[in-house]
Amino acid sequence: MATFVLIHGGGDSGWAWHLLEAQLRSRGHETVAPDLPSDQPAAGLGDYADAVAEAVGERRNLVVVGHSYGAFTAPLVAERLGAEALVLLAGMIPEPGERPDDWWERTGCNKARDAAGLSAIEDPFESFYHDVPRELAEEALRREREESSRVGGEPWPLTAWPDIPTKFIVCKDDRFFPPEFFRALAQERLGVTPDEIGGSHCVALSRPQELAALLVSYLQE
């Protein structure tokens, strides 16, 4: 049995993982999906990692999963807790010393979004939740939270990527981050060929069964 430590993205909460948690638990695994203190303006990346570590407690055999903006926190947690594996789900892969606010330009993400026509999509039901049932998407938007402004200006504190087996998952139907952009970035920054799953940026809500199967498959490697 593994414990999947699920770290949500920007403006989100642990609720975003609830369907995936049910799928993972039905397969005999444990899950931890805390709310990051992102709605606290003074909270920094260290506070985010502290919140996750506190929620994990004494659990071991950890697989840390970071979604989107949660990729800035997930490696900190994985290194601190000695995780067995680290998974980035459409994750914003950071480099040492890089500030989240600078990531968009440094990686070329803004240009990639413009070229793919994604910057023009303003409706969140189209950019984030286009394949999520409408009622579920509306609930997700209702639960949206502010993001700490302090985090965006903080340099990512690790001096190197953790020495932990790392996977990257591209969402093939993502309308927020271009899939081809993440395919290239995963190679450039992690030296890995990403796995791919059909679905939107919020695939944990749209295809939790398929995502759970993919995550559990990593335990065999």
Rg from Cα: 16 Å
For the largest beta sheet, what order do the strands appear in spatially?
Answer: 2-1-3-4-5-6
What is the tally of beta strands?
A: 6
The fraction of residues in strands falls at: 5-15%
What is the helix fraction of residues, given as a range?
25-40%
| Unreliably modeled segments | none
The biggest beta sheet reads:
6 strands, parallel
Number of helical segments with 4 or more residues: 11
Main structural class: alpha/beta
State the separation between the terminal residues, measured CA to CA. Answer: 14 Å
Series of secondary-structure elements, N-terminal to C-terminal: EHEHEHEHHHHHEHEHH
> What is the mean predicted local confidence, pLDDT?
97
Shape: globular
